[in-house]
Amino acid sequence: NAGVTQTPKFQVLKTGQSMTLQCAQDMNHEYMSWYRQDPGMGLRLIHYSVGAGITDQGEVPNGYNVSRSTTEDFPLRLLSAAPSQTSVYFCASSQSGTEGSPLHFGNGTRLTVT
Amino acid sequence: AQKVTQAQTEISVVEKEDVTLDCVYETRDTTYYLFWYKQPPSGELVFLIRRNSFDEQNEISGRYSWNFQKSTSSFNFTITASQVVDSAVYFCAPFTGTASKLTFGTGTRLQVTL
What we know:
The structure holds 2 protein chains of 2 kinds. Chain A is mostly beta strands. Helices cover 0% and strands 51% of the residues of chain A.
């Protein structure tokens, strides 16, 4: 039972490069989301999806794109990396986006932008 | 918009002491859920408890207990007889179905020493 799988675990980018953080879940969850965690800031919501084909912005969406073509996958794209995007990124999923189901988190991706 | 305040940035206790982590939230919704998550030094995020806004009955689970008071918008978490393994960052997070967003507080770092 893999749960939520994030790849890669670590990544170093140069300013201006683009990349995609992968997230996959095998629990048939409707709801998926991306958070970033910075020291002293808690976790902040970047984008979320309540089902395949549906995405919406969270608190800090600028510089990131998402799509949800399947129930299982929810990739996060950095269009042109900036040092301010250095952070730890967590993907999460839950059964429902409206019923307050607990989020299941991936193990995180530590991204450094130089 | 939801807002969460975890006023205690860091708490240090000696093993076997009891410790209470405070959480105060703001929400305009009448129906909502409240969560606590734990992040140990290894970095993963672990779900601890979920309460809904209709259920103010306090709960005890082993050494953990939770005190939810809707009148004061507080959802505090107590660890009885703390252990070194309880050392972690603890996050309080309200959730509303209308917004499908889980908003995290900035976390309280608990350090339990021998």
